Amino acid sequence: MSDLPPLLTVRELKSPDFHAGAPFSAVLVVKKLQVKTAANGNPYLSLELGDRGGSFFCTIFGDSPLCDPIKAAGEGAVLRVEGRNDSFQGRFSPKLFKAAALTEQEIIAEPGLVDALVELPPENGAELWVEFQTYIDFIRHDELRMTVRGAFDEIGEVFRYAPAAVSMHHAYRHGLLEHTLHMARACKALLPLYPEVDPDLAMAGILLHDTGKTVEYEGTLATKRSRRGILQGHVVLGYQIARKHGIKARLDADRLERLEHIILSHQGEPEWGAAVYAATPEAVFVSMIDNLDAKMGMVQRALRQADAANEFSERLPGLNSPLLTRPVS
C-alpha cells in the first residue's frame, strides 16, 4: 500500500484545493447503501460514504466489479477505497476503482481509525446526561415522574449513546440525548408563554418521545434500522415503552392516554411517521418543538462541516435546500 496516495478525510476530499481528476485513497464508513434501477433498467448502488467530518454520495454501476463486494459488505462496513476526484451536478461524487472491506481486527489495529470515523456531538455526552436528569426532576407529578424515571432506568445506557436518526438530524453518537435535551431546554423556556399546556405532561412527553429509537436503530460505526425498527417503527416502540412504565407507576388513565398521544403524534404528519395528528395542547407543543430542533440540528451540523471556500452547503434533504453557511458580516 506504500505506493498509494496518503489517506484523505472527507473534508480534504471536498476541499477546493483537491483538483478534479486527482487520485485518492481513503478509509470510510458505508453510511447508507441503496440498490436502485436506472432508466435503462440496469441496477446500480447509491452509496453514502463518510467519516467523522462529513459524508458524500457516489454511484457504483451494476456491471462494476465493485458492486457485489460492496453490496455484500453492507451498511456499517468500513471500506478502504481508491478513486479519482469527480463531480456530478456540482456535487462531489468521485469515481471509485477499488474498495475492500476492513475486518474488525484491522479497524482496531489501526491507531486512531475508529475516532476518525465516528462523528461526535459538539457537547460533552457525560455533561448532557447529568443535565438530562434535572429535567426528569422538573416533573412534579409523582406518577408521571416515576413513569419517565422507570423508562430511563431500563433504556438509559443505550439512550445515552444512540443517534437520533440514520441521516436526517443528530445522526451521530449521543445525538438522541443531545436532541432530546435541546427540546427539554426549549420546552422549559417556552412553557411560560403557553399556560394552556400542562408542564409535566409536556416535559414527560418530550423526554420520552423518541425512546423507541433505542430499539429502532442499531450499529456502531453507521446507523441502520433493526428488524423491530422496520416492522414497528420508533413511534410505536416508544408508545410501548411509555405505556409499560406508566402502568407500572400506576399513572392515572387520562394522563397515560395523553402521554401516549404525545408520542404517537410527535412526528407531525402521517407521511413523516406520525400514527395520528396532534390533538391535545401538549401534543401540538411537543410536535412543534421536535420539528424546530430537528431542523436546527440539520443547520448546526451543516455549519460545523462547512468549507470556508464554499458559500453554501450541499442540498440538505430535510430542508429541501442548500444552506447559506457564511456568517453575517
What would you note in describing this structure?
This protein has 329 residues and is of the alpha+beta class. The chain has two domains: 10-117, OB fold (Dihydrolipoamide Acetyltransferase, E2P) (Beta Barrel), CATH 2.40.50; 125-304, no CATH class. The protein has 13 helices and nine strands. The strands form three sheets. It has a five-stranded antiparallel β-sheet. A two-stranded antiparallel ribbon has the order 5-6. α6 runs parallel beside α8 (199-208), α6 (142-161) crosses α11 (233-248) and α7 packs across α13 (281-304). The chain is elongated. The N and C termini lie far apart (46 Å). The mean pLDDT is 88.
The secondary-structure class comes to: alpha+beta
Elements, N to C (H/E): HEEEHEEEEHHHHHHHEEHHHH
The poorly predicted ranges are none
What's the rounded overall pLDDT mean?
Answer: 88
